[in-house]
Structure formats: C-alpha cells, structure tokens
Amino acid sequence: MGQRGPGRPGRGGAGRGRGGQARSAPPDILVNCAGINLRPPLGSLTVEDWDATMAVNLTAPFLLGQRFGPGMAERGWGRIINVTSQQAARAFGNSGGYGASKGGLAALTRSQSEAWARPACAATRSCPGFVPTRLNAHVARDPERSAAMAARTMTGRNGSPEDFAGVAVFRVGGQRLRDRPDPVRGRRVLRDLSCPHVRGLR
What we know:
The structure is a single chain. 35% of the residues lie in helices and 15% in strands. By secondary structure, the protein is of the alpha/beta class. It has a single domain, classed as NAD(P)-binding Rossmann-like Domain (Rossmann fold), CATH 3.40.50.720. The protein has a 6-stranded mixed sheet with strand order 1-4-5-6-7-8, sandwiched between helices. The chain has a two-stranded antiparallel sheet with strand order 2-3. The radius of gyration is 18 Å and the shape is globular.
C-alpha cells in the first residue's frame, strides 16, 4: 500500500508506542493497485455488484488518500500512484462497473493533485494495457482473444506486472517538490507495450 521513501523529509523515524511496541512512520508513497472486476453484462449488473466494485476500486483509494495525502503535503514530500485502466477512457464488454470505477479513480487522481500538489504531494495514475491477471483470467486463457490483444501492441505481446516497475520508480523518484517542482502531477502514465518505455503522459 505505502512505504517510507528513502531519505525523505518527515517527522522522524519509527518510534515506540504503548508497551514498547514498534510504531511505524507514516508513508511517503501510496500505491493504490487493488481491484475487482465483476463481469456480468451491464443489464445484469446488480446493485450489490456495483457497490462492491466501487468500494474496492474507488472508495478505498479515496479513503487512503484522505488518510495519508494531507500528511505527505504537510511533511513536504509525497507520491500517490493510482492504478487505473484504459477502461477509464473506453468501454470493454461485460465490464461496465469496472470501467466506471476506473473512470472515477482517474477523476479522483486529478482532484488529489489539485488539493495537494502545490503543498508537495504529487498524485498520478498508471494506465495499463492488457495484462493477464486473475481479474481477466478468462480472456488470458483464450488463445484467440489473448493473441488479438497482443496484436494491438508494437511489441506483439501482452504486458506483465514487471513491465510497470520502471513507471513506478520514475514516478516516485526526484527531489522534494519544494526544491524542484515536479511537472507530472494529476496525469496518467500510459504503458501498453507500444514501445519499451513510457508511451506518453496525458
């Protein structure tokens, strides 16, 4: 979920709470990447399915941002990375609730950036292409559909979680924002294997 950035300003290291128990320092880096994707046709999507999807994909990042974002801004350095999806901008079949939640997360990222970027907490979103995971296992197991997804990329293959490590490191690097303003705030970082590096910032 989050971690202390190396060498970042803060209120000191971990201390001791009641009874001598270790007390961790507040995080400087928050990555919201948990998600669920319930896939009935939109006409069959129940209110329960909708509420569950929003709770995990949108409400949880909101609550975590509320919990840690103001502290990051107050301490003078912080990063929030929200993992969205291309479905934030285009519709995929039998994925209406998921797409709506990711569209909401994209808007939330902009709001978090507006609220905390000037004080020193940069919020951005990583926008993956097709990456086989448990959420889309039924597609990944289908050779034809999986190949069709891969054919859309210039590299001819689908993504893997490891492909996004560089994007994350890029986003959390750099000095304190008060010392060197970060131009990438509230934006989406596209990673769809059209080239071996970050495709673009929007």
